[in-house]
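User: I'm preparing a small set of examples for a lab meeting where we compare how different chains pack in three dimensions. I only have the primary sequence for this one, and I'd like the structure in C-alpha cell form so I can line it up with the others. Please keep the answer compact; I'll paste it straight into my notes.
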Amino acid sequence: MVRHNNQLPNNLTQLQNLIKRDPTSYKDEFRQQLAHFETTLEIFNLNPTQYNKKLDEQAMFLAQVTQCYQNEMKNFPQKIVDVLKTHNTTLHNDMRLSLCKCLILLRNKNFISAFDLLEIFFSLIKCQDKNLREYLKTHIITDIKNLNMKHKDMKLNTTLQNFIFSMLKDSNTKTAKLSIDILIELYHKNIWNDNKTVNIIAEVGCFSKIMKVMVASLKFFLSKEEEEKEEEDSDDEVDPKETMMSNKFNKKTRKREKMVQKVKKTAKKIKKRKEKAPVFNFSALHLVNNPQGFAEKLFKQVEASNDRFEVKLMTLDVVSRLIGLHDLFLFNFYPFIARLLMPHQREVTRILQFAAQAAHELVPPEVIEPVMKAIANNFITERNSTDVMAVGLNAVREICARCPLAINEDLLRDLVQYKSYKEKSVMMAARSLIQLYRHSMPTLLHKKDRGRPSEASLELKTKQYGEMEIKDYIPGSEVLLEKEEIKEKGKKANKKGKVKNDDSDDEWVDVASSDSEINISDSDEDEVSDEEQSEKEENEEENDDGSDENESNVEDQTETEKNETPSQNIESKENTRKVLKAKRSVTKEEREEKIKVAREIAMDKIFTDEDFKRIEAAQLKKHVSGVKRNRSVVEEENESTELVQLSAIENIHKKRKHDKSARLESVLKGREERDKFGYKDRRKNVNCSKTNREKRKTKSYQMIKHKAKGKIKRSFKDKQIAFRNYLIKQKKMR
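Assistant: Understood. Below is the C-alpha cell output for the 734-residue chain.
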C-alpha cells in the first residue's frame, strides 16, 4: 500500500477512510491528530466565543474513528462534555452545534449513555439558539424511539421519564416547553403512551404557570382523531382497470391522459390504505386516573383566570369532554355555560358544542334545565334570524341525544311546532328533533308526531332518571329458529289438509303479517281507553302531514264511507277496533314468547358471524314493519358518540336561490378563474401551418360536401373491393 504521509495531516477525510480500513497501520497518524486536538482545545478554552474551524474538523474526525481506538479515546467524550458544560451559553452558535453533533455521533456508537446526553442537552436548551433547540429535540425523540424499537427497557424508560418530568417543573420557559413537546411527541408515536405520561401532563402541564406549556397540554387532550384522520372523503373508490380499458379505445387527449394518471395514483393510495393494519388509538382522556378531580381543578382555574378567551374556550372544551366521557357530576358547569349562550357571543356555536358534550344520562334534568332555557329563550324565538333559530334547535337535539330527559314535555311540544315553519332551515331542524324522540322517548311527543308504530317502537321502554335496562338475552336472536319453525308448520299443514271453512280465518290472527298489514293508531297499548277519543285522534293522524299513509288509500276509504250508511259505518269501525285489540294482545304475548326463545338460544348456542348478520337484519326489519313505505333504507337511531361534531350544530338547510339574477351571478362567479370554453390552439408556434383536419373546420360546406359522403354506410361489395385494393397496395409496398 502506497502511503502519502505528507498529505494525510491536512486531508482528514482521506485519513479517516484509511483508518477505518486498517486501524493498526495508521495508529501513529491518529496519535498525532489526537495531540493536535488537545493543543487546539487548550487554545480554544482561552477564547470560547470565537468559532474555531480547526477544532470543529478535528473533533468530528476523532468522533468518526473512535471505535477503532477505544482505549486511547476513553476520555474524548468527557472532554467535549466539559467544554459544553463550562461554556454552554458563551460558545459560538456554529461551534456549539458542531460539538453537539460529535456527541450525537458518539451516542450512536454507544460511547456515551442516553441519560448523560439528555442531561447535557437540557442544560443547552437555555441558549438563545432556535435551530439548536429544534435539532436537540429531534435527536432526543429519535434516540428514545430507537431505544424502544426492538423491546422496551422499562428501567431506562423510567429514569428518562423521571428526568423529563422534573424538567417540566422547571421555571425556565424553554426547558419546560421542550420537555412537554417531547412527551407529547413520544405519546403520539406510541412510545410513552402509558398512564404515567398522561397523568403528568394532566397534573403538571395543564396547571403550569407558563402559558405556552399550559396551552400545549390542553391541545394534547383535544387533539384526538383529528391529527390522525386521513382524507378518506377525497379519495373515492376507483376501478383503475375500467378507466384503462376506456382510455384504450376512446380518443387520446391530454385531459384523458391526466385523468388516467390521477386514477392510478388514487388506486395506489387506496391499496396502501387497505394493506395498513387498523390503528385503535384511544383518547388520552381515557387514561386520566382522577377525572373528577382533574375536571374540578380545570373548571376552578377557568372561573378564577384572566386568560385570553381562546385559552378559556380550550379549557372548557377539555372539561366538557371529561364530563361526557366519564359521566362526571360538575353541576356548576351548566349555569356557567348558560351565561355565555347568547347569539351575539363570540364562538357561540363552540360553546353550544361544549354544552352538548357535557350532557349525559346521569345529569339530573333540573341541573341542565338552565342551559335548555337559555337556548330556548335566546335562540329559538321569532325575533332572531332563521339561522340562529336553526342552530338553537340543532343544539337542543344534540343535548337531548345524550340526555333525553333534559327537556320537559311542554317545551318539547312547543319546539316541535316549528316543523311547519316557513323557512326550511328551521323546519328541518325541528323535524330532526321529532325523529330523535320517535326513536328514544315517543311518549313525550304529541300523538300525531309519534309516527306510525312499528315492532321496534312497541318494544321501546321509557326510562326514568337513573334507570338501567339490562337484558339477559340478545334481542333478535329468535330469528335463528324461524327456518326450522316454518318447516315444521309446513309439515303440519300438509298432514291436516286444507281448511274449508272461511269463518275460521276470522278467528285466527297471523302475527307475522299483522304489523305490516294493519294500520294501528299511534297510541301505546296502555293508553287505549275511550273509543270516541281514539277515533278523533285517528282522524287527526290521517289529516296530519307527518303521517306516512298514501293518498290513494285515503281516497278509497272516503269513497267507501260515502257509499255506506252511517249505521254500517259505525258497525265496521267497531269490528275493526275489536280485531285491532285482539291482534295487539297477540303481539304482546308473542313478544314475551320471543324473549323467552331468545333467552334459551343465548344459553344454548354460540353465535357465528352469519348469525349476528341475520340478527342485525331482523332488528332493522322491525323498524319497517307496520309502516307503509316504499323505502328500503331505514334510518337507524343516532348513537351518542364520544364527541359532538361542530358541523351537526352548524348544519343549516338552505333553499336554492330561485331569482334569475342571483343564479346568474353565482354562475359568473364560478367562471372567474376557469379557462375560456371553446377550441384551444395547442401549436407551440402560432405562425406554423395547420393540419388538413383543422383547416376543414373553417371551410364552407360546399367545399367539403364530397368528403361527407364517405360517412355513408358502405355495402358489403364496396367493403370487399376496398379491402382487396388495400391488400394489393400492401403487397406493392413490400
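A couple of notes for your slides: DSSP finds 34 helices and no strands in the chain. The CA atoms of residues 448 and 541 lie 5 Å apart.

User: Perfect, thanks.
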